[in-house]
Design goal:
CATH class of the largest domain: Alpha Beta
Order of helices and strands: HHEEHHEHEHEHEHEHEEHHHEHEEEH
Shape: globular
CATH topology of the largest domain: Aspartate Aminotransferase, domain 2
Largest sheet: 7 strands, mixed
Strand content: 5-15%
Helix content: 40-55%
Structural class: alpha/beta
CATH superfamily of the largest domain: Type I PLP-dependent aspartate aminotransferase-like (Major domain)
Strand order of the largest sheet: 3-9-8-7-6-4-5
Bound molecules: pyridoxal-5'-phosphate
Number of strands: 13
Distance between the termini: 36 Å
Length: 410
């Protein structure tokens, strides 16, 4: 056995144990697309999907992708430098206009968009200031920037969503420039960034604010353009990063900003320059969703909000703890690993998928089910999920908060 096999054996012990106990919850295989899918031959309603507007499987979207396959196939076999199509350029121009920025650049994933943006903009003259709950793409972009010899920025963290903590960090920074990166909506907690306070502090300390609005795009603001539309702060935030992998029904990353900044990232971001171009069928699908948002965005956003309001009210009435959530992302806090896993398995047996989030993704004591309400969920879906959550929430002491105690083997 080589050392890498030894290493894998040692490091995967926890995964092996979970599989042996038949509570390993990840990488479950969907047998169809959509919120109403099938796992191991059984129908399942997915409540952990990020398809917030329920448009991914819309016939118009699929038809556009099929047409694009005929014209451009599934890939362009090269990066954007030598594989840009008129479809890419047209959609970038439309997106820039829809979001209200001068320019847009499409990456192959949102993860790459954030990596490329941070590495291109933050250098040795920069202090990068991150929220302590930052998504992996923000952390990885920062680690990458910090590892470039001679260019490494100073890296500082502030307490999650704390304006006071942010101000302390900006005041005591060591570098001339400062770049603050936050998320519009935090994906595990479902709370929004305190942007009104952050833009003021950034202005006071001459810092640039970058907002990753992956979960706000399509869900917030009257037209669905995101958290900056909702808060009326678009003019105060010079750089936005987003994704097609949630409301836009596919895959792909977005950078929005001024002509100069977007052009700089376009010519510097290695995650853009050295990775394959976004396939045109995916561009066509996103472009069709943009058509639909332009036609009917406000109605779709209202429908999403009505559904999430209903679900939230019922969960709160039943006594569930939703942490800091104030959006369609509603973590059902179980605060104990076994309770979370048991809830997940019991719900799945009954056809409802709510993915468990456990340590190290969250701290011990903050384990939860990932619950996202989407516009694609029906009243029956929500009522079925609520009934099951109440039943098992009582059975596994999630609602009472009591200790679950030792579990005897069957
Ligand atoms: C906040 C945030 N940013 C960025 C990303 C990455 O997006 P993508 O799936 O397009 O790589 C995600 C996806 O999980 C996310 O939640």
């Amino acid at each position: 056995m080589s050392w890498i096999d030894e290493k894998a054996k040692v490091e995967l012990q926890r995964v092996r144990e979970a599989r042996e106990k038949q509570v390993y919850p990840y990488f479950r295989e969907f047998e169809t697309g959509g919120l109403h899918t099938q796992i191991a031959g059984k129908p399942v309603i997915n409540f952990s999907s990020n398809d917030y507007l329920g448009l991914t499987n819309h016939p118009r979207v699929k038809e556009a992708a099929k047409k694009a396959v005929e014209k451009y196939a599934c890939g362009l076999s090269s990066s954007r430098v030598q594989a840009t199509t008129t479809e890419h350029v047209e959609l970038e121009a439309r997106l820039a206009k829809w979001f209200g920025y001068e320019r847009c650049l499409m990456f192959t994933t949102g993860y790459q968009a954030m990596l490329g943006t941070i590495v291109s903009l933050a250098d040795k003259d920069t202090t990068l200031v991150l929220d302590s709950y930052s998504h992996a793409c923000i952390l990885d972009g920062t680690f990458l920037a910090a590892g470039i010899p001679g260019r490494a920025p100073e890296v500082r963290f502030f307490n999650h969503n704390s304006a006071k903590s942010l101000e302390r960090i900006l005041k005591s920074r060591e570098r001339k420039n400062a770049m603050v990166v936050v998320e519009g909506v935090y994906s595990l907690d479902g709370d929004k960034a305190h942007l009104a306070e952050f833009v003021e502090i950034c202005a006071k300390y001459d810092a640039v604010l970058v907002v990753d609005d992956a979960h706000g795009t399509g869900t917030l603001g009257e037209r669905g353009t995101g958290v900056l539309e909702e808060t009326g702060l678009r003019d105060r935030v010079p750089v936005v990063v987003s994704t097609f992998s949630k409301s836009f029904g596919g895959i792909g990353g977005l950078l929005l900003g001024s002509e100069e900044v977007v052009d700089l990232v376009k010519h510097n971001a290695r995650s853009f320059l050295f990775s394959a171009s976004l396939p045109v069928p995916v561009v066509a699908a996103a472009s069709t969703i943009l058509d639909m948002l332009e036609e009917d965005g406000p109605k779709m956003v209202r429908e999403l909000h009505q559904k999430s309001e209903y679900f939230r009210t019922e969960l709160v009435k039943a006594g569930f703890d939703l942490g800091a959530s104030n959006t369609h992302i509603m973590p059902v806090m179980c605060r104990e690993e076994r309770k979370t896993l048991f809830m997940h398995i019991a719900l799945l047996e009954c056809g409802v998928l709510m993915v468990p989030i456990t340590y190290p993704a969250v701290k011990h004591g903050e384990e939860r089910l990932r619950v996202n309400i989407t516009r694609g969920h029906t009243q029956e879906d929500m009522d079925q999920a609520l009934d099951l959550l109440k039943t098992y929430g009582e059975a596994f002491f999630v609602l009472s908060g009591e200790d679950i105690g030792p579990v005897e083997p069957a």
